[in-house]
C-alpha cells in the first residue's frame, strides 16, 4: 500500500495509534500511551522554544528505503523547508532532528533500525526518549553527550511533576 493510500483511506483516518509502512507497503501500527503523548508534546514544546528558526512538527512522516517511518517529533531548518515545503504527505528526506519516544511495543533493534534509516535519508541527529524521560542523542557517527544542534536541550524530561 502506498503512503498516499494510507493517509487518504477513510477507515484509517481516525485510528488511535501510529501508522507506518514497511518496505513492502504493509501497514504497521503501534498503540501509544498517554505518557507517550505527553512526552511528545513536552519535547516538541522545548524544541520549539530553543529553535531560533525552522519548524517543529509532531508525527512527521519520512520516506525511507524501508517504507514510511513517522517520527514522534522533528525539527527542520528554514533551508529544509525552502527545499521541501510543508505540503507533503511524506518527506523525501529526513528533517535535521528526529525524535522517537520508546514504548513497550518498541524493540531496541527496531529503534536502532529507525535511527539508521533516518540518517540514511539525511537526519543530522536522532534523539531517543525512554519511558522514564531520559534522553539519548545520536549523530551518524554515534552517541553524543548532548545535542550538538540544540546544546541547551535537557537530558531528562520530567512529566510526573507539575
Q: Any overview of this molecule?
A:
The protein is of the alpha+beta class. The chain has a domain at 32-144: tt1808, chain A, CATH 3.90.1570.10. It contains four helices and eight strands; from the N terminus they run H-E-E-H-E-E-H-E-H-E-E-E. It has helices at residues 3-8, 34-50, 78-84, 108-120, and strands spanning 17-21, 27-31, 55-64, 67-76, 97-101, 125-129, 135-139, 142-144. Strands 3-4-5-6-7-8 form a six-stranded mixed beta sheet. Strands 1-2 form a two-stranded antiparallel ribbon. A hairpin with a 5-residue loop joins strand 6 and strand 7. The N and C termini lie far apart (43 Å). 27% of the residues are buried.
Distance between the termini: 43 Å
Roughly how much helix do the residues carry, as a percent range? 25-40%
**What does the main sheet amount to?**
6 strands, mixed
Q: Which strand order do you get reading across the main beta sheet?
A: 3-4-5-6-7-8
Tell me the strand percentage band.
25-35%
Ranges where pLDDT stays below 50 over 5 or more residues in a row are none
CATH fold naming of one domain: tt1808, chain A
What is the succession of H and E elements? Answer: HEEHEEHEHEEE
- Tell me the number of helical segments per DSSP (H or I, 4 or more residues long): 4
- What name goes with the CATH superfamily of one domain? tt1808, chain A
Mean pLDDT: 86
What gyration radius follows from the Cα positions, in whole Å?
15 Å
Summary, kept brief:
With 162 residues, the protein is α+β, with helices and mostly antiparallel strands.
